[in-house]
Design brief:
34% helix; 7-stranded mixed β-sheet
């Protein structure tokens, strides 16, 4: 039996054998080579979860090298990905396993027509390139040895999604992705890498407001098969601790694996939106301030560098040039957000919905602190209603009037000792408007 690679931010353990392995697999807390490290992990766990930094050029180059390595190919059966729409699984299998000639436009529906359309990150060319890289690997293998990509995004056929009720009827993303891992990998005694955004994978998925547990990919897999996953989370920065931590990372090569137990990074407080209450925050119920450290959330980090070190790769605005495609994306925006896309974002690599003037007027009457508290509360309640922390639970969008940094790129900053996403209204007014409209629900 071969093993499949599960690329995700969270670890999910497997069976009795894996549980024993979890007790003995204690790698040295020094930077290590990704391929060699992954080989050891996959020999002891049916799942290697690698947390994705969305749009990271370096991380996907590393992942491509990983699946090309013969010693990894000998272990894995599958790669489970968040960026693939399960509705098109048969099309993906035909292209990768049967080596069928699939027209580029039809194949692109796998990652372009996902449930986060039209605002998700998966229009970036790195996702397309990864699929074609797996195809190139498979062309040199026998049918029984070819790597399968398992599409884990909920199956959505946008041709039949006509109303917001239709869209809300889709399965919760984290729940569905976890169930795909269980049904397509664990129950078939296969091995895999899962690639999903980190918030779906934290070992401790709890609400920062109520403190109660929430469903994510890890919790679903853990319930089905305890002890089956090793969690290797991509990391691209340390938020308000950058000034403290980055100088200590200077001698660590990009692309290195850093086991967190025994390493200073593991003792850093975990990314959290829970901190000492502000005057306005004190008026709402909050969970106790967390003492969780990063080694409580993940087993190891994959260091991919900050966006300033290795720029992210977003979509080309050329992808929105076709008027029919643009009209369809606006239709989806109205279904999901109640408003069409901001036409100004058609010139960028990241689409955003337009914002209502009423939202701006309401927010203009609030202090900045009241606005931030409102966004945190609404973001978390939205996710609790979904039963799914999804993207951004620990990365709640914040709106500030201005910030330093590269225009259009959200940065982390500290607010009341809590690590959060901050978005500059000056540098990225569209993203800020979406945060205003949705109570902080801005995708990573």
């Amino acid at each position: 039996m071969r093993v499949a690679l599960l690329l995700s931010c969270l670890v999910v353990p497997a069976g009795n054998t894996s549980r024993a392995a979890a007790q003995t697999f204690a790698p040295d807390p020094v930077p290590q080579d990704l391929v060699a490290f992954s080989q050891t992990a996959l020999q002891q766990y049916p799942l290697l979860a690698i947390g994705e930094v969305h749009n990271s050029r370096l991380q996907y180059a590393l992942l491509t090298d990983l699946i090309r390595a013969p010693r990894i190919r000998a272990l894995i059966d599958d790669v489970v990905v968040e960026f693939g729409n399960a509705f098109y699984q048969d099309r993906l299998d035909g292209f990768l396993l049967d080596l069928e000639d699939v027209p580029a436009a039809k194949l692109a529906q796998v990652w372009r027509d996902h449930s986060e359309s039209p605002t998700g990150p998966f229009e970036s060319p790195i996702y397309r390139d990864f699929v074609y890289s797996v195809r190139a690997v498979n062309e040199g293998l026998a049918r029984s040895e070819r790597i399968r990509i398992v599409a884990a995004d909920p199956p959505v056929n946008w041709d039949v999604i006509r109303t917001s009720a239709d869209f809300r009827a889709l399965p919760a993303r984290s729940q569905y992705m976890g169930e795909r891992v269980v049904s397509e990998v664990l129950q078939k005694n296969r091995r895999a890498i899962l690639i999903v955004g980190g918030a779906h994978l934290s070992r401790r998925a709890v609400s920062p407001i109520s403190g109660r547990s929430m469903v994510n990919v890890t919790s679903v897999v853990e319930q089905a098969r305890p002890g089956s996953v090793y969690v290797l989370s991509g990391v691209a920065g340390f938020g308000p601790r950058d000034a403290e931590v980055l100088p200590r990372m200077a001698d660590i090569p990009l692309g290195s694996v850093i086991p967190l137990r025994g390493h200073f990074l593991g003792d850093l407080p975990g990314p959290s939106v829970v901190g000492p209450a502000s005057p306005t925050a004190a008026r709402r119920p909050t969970a106790p301030a967390s003492s969780v450290t990063r080694k409580d959330l993940f087993d190891a980090y994959l260091w991919v560098g900050t966006p300033e070190m290795v720029p992210l790769v977003t979509a080309s605005p050329q992808q929105w040039a076709d008027d029919a495609r643009w009209a369809e994306l606006n239709r989806r925006s109205v279904i999901r957000f109640g408003v069409p896309l901001d036409p100004e974002t058609r010139k960028s690599g990241q689409l955003r919905p337009a914002a209502d003037q009423a939202d701006h007027d309401e927010l203009a009457a609030m202090s900045l602190q009241e606005r931030l508290d409102r966004e945190l509360t609404l973001q978390t309640r939205y996710r609790e209603a979904q039963g799914d922390p999804g993207q951004g639970l620990a990365r709640v969008a914040r709106v500030v009037e201005r910030r330093r940094g590269r225009p259009g790129h959200p940065v982390r900053s500290r607010l009341d000792d809590a690590e959060v996403w901050m978005i500059s209204r000056e540098a990225d007014p569209v993203a800020a408007a979406l945060a205003d409209r949705s109570g902080g629900y801005v995708q990573e």
